[in-house]
Amino acid sequence: MAKKTIQIPQGATEVVVDTVDQVTAVVAVPASVVTFNTVDIPNVPPIANAGTDITITLPVSSVTLNGVVNDSDGVVVSQQWTKVSGGVATITNPANAITTVTGLVEGNYVFRLSTTDDKGATDTDDVSITVKAAVIVVPPTGYTLTFENDFAQSSDINDNQLGLGGYSTKDGGCFKSLVNGVNTSSGWRSEQQYTQAAANPTEGAVEYDVNYESVFASGGHSFQWHPNADGASACLAMWHNEGKFYIVQKLAGDKGVYQTGTLTPIATNKWYKMRVEYKFSTGTDGYFRWYIDGVLYYKKENAPTAFSNSGQYVKIGQNRWLNVNSESVAYYRNLKIYKKS
Fold first, then answer.
1. Distance between CA atoms of 83 and 129, rounded to whole angstroms?
2. Residues 54, 130: contact at Cβ < 8 Å?
3. Euclidean distance between CA atoms 218 and 244, whole angstroms
4. What is the pLDDT of residues 311-322, one digit of tens each?
5. Measuring CA to CA, which residue among 113, 114, 110, 93 is closest to residue 102?
6. pTM for the model
7. CB of 4 within 8 A of CB of 21?
8. What is the longest distance spanned by two Cα atoms in the chain?
């Protein structure tokens, strides 16, 4: 606490004293000199929040830093991101609380958000970024590559059941599957369909990468084999069930075989590497094994896997039938199809 003295001008009837500490005193006159006490109000420092820790897997090499800064009793005059530790990286807009970081490599990073208020007080907060090595999935020996499409350029996209989707420059180029209430080919879909023999061996393996920007909860699938038989449902498909990966088969008589047990939630903005090894058969020699990021997710052995002997064709992209007016987006790349030798 401090004392201050002021001289009151002649003839004044009242003096209002507004101190630098934001304490106002109203003084009655005729006193010619007034001495009063001031109370120092301490400055409240600003607060920096660098957001939650992030984990990505190569080839994804960029993240968004979602920082927040605020000052409860003043003004934030600066904010700045810096790299504390880790390999090479580029902070796109280091003076913005929300910015991207690109060019990340495998390893661990720490980025720091610093802020300063109008009275010189500061605060910092750190966020950790973990970059995992790319998942390299090599098909077992005895397979021959018969078809591939990396969707790296617009000419790689066909308009067969494309719907609202198309080519996207995301992460070097990919197929964007977009569904939002538009009926395409008697359904709400945005797919790439391949009917040629090279893309549909009876026994083989399929690999593709998928990234869900948004996830529809249920009532649709994001990859399928469709029988050539008219009116038949997908004989093998990656459905969604309450936002989780869900393997479903539809066999003769529309008999469904549904995955049971614990289902894995679908994360957004993450590239998944899918691989399916399969043999389509109406007999007991059929099988399929579905891998997600190199880990076996579901399998079926020594059982019927085909709707009929008419064959089937592969379709990559979204096909929905519930809540179709809600928008959902998925990206696809690196489609490879192998024939079992």
1. 11
2. yes
3. 8
4. 899 999 999 988
5. 93
6. 0.65
7. no
8. 111
